[in-house]
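Researcher: Go.
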Amino acid sequence: MLLHPALLRRWAMQLGQFVSRAWEIGPPEVLVRRIDVAEIALGGSVAIGPAFVAALTSGEHETWQSLTASASRQHEWLLGRLALKDVVRAWASERGQTLEPSDIEIHIDDEGAPFARCAALSGVGGSPVISLSHNSGVVVAAAADPGALIGIDIEYADRKIDVVARALSETEQAFVDAEAASVLDILVAKEAATKALGVGLGGGVSRWPVVSVTPLPQGVMVDVTSTTDLGLVLPVLVLHPLDTVLGICYIAPDIDAA
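Model: Structure:
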């Protein structure tokens, strides 16, 4: 579907509402928003209307148009962009800036991590750091102040984890045996931690060992480190909302990760 630029601009003017909704969860310094796919689905597939596409910049629209091999891939890509734009807009709103989705362009760096560009945010220190995760039913995006580290990951609680379980270290298996954390808790923590560093897990489960698990009233705090940098400690808050496991790794701008 190729949309005329004039139509895109007109539909963009109607975009005042967020596609996602606020999710008050995790550290107060982190904004989280979610899209429940079923809420915008029609007949089992995501109903992507013109207004959704109008949220894209011209460059993003070209990328979206290029994803012709799979409609589901187009939908997934677009919902991820909408969630990220929404969380940047929400962050900007807290600082007195009102933005349209098309004011924000989402890019992916060489390691696959998303980042936002928005000239209008130069007066408030630049764009926030962002992170994205999704499964078949929910898309979540997080934002934090520039200079922070932020990584988010969400999985359904019934995800198959046999392969991951076989890759656990002795220390990690001890946490599971003691019921301090589940295998999925550990996996989600590693995913969130590596996203915070902007590198992603990339299948390297054993390269990011969990070294401690601390129970909290609302979940568990899981400390993840690296086999190549044992001085690095990345704390991940792991929560269990509804039928999911959610990990949020956050390190404030003025706190060293080591």
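Model: The chain has two domains: 19-147, 153-251.
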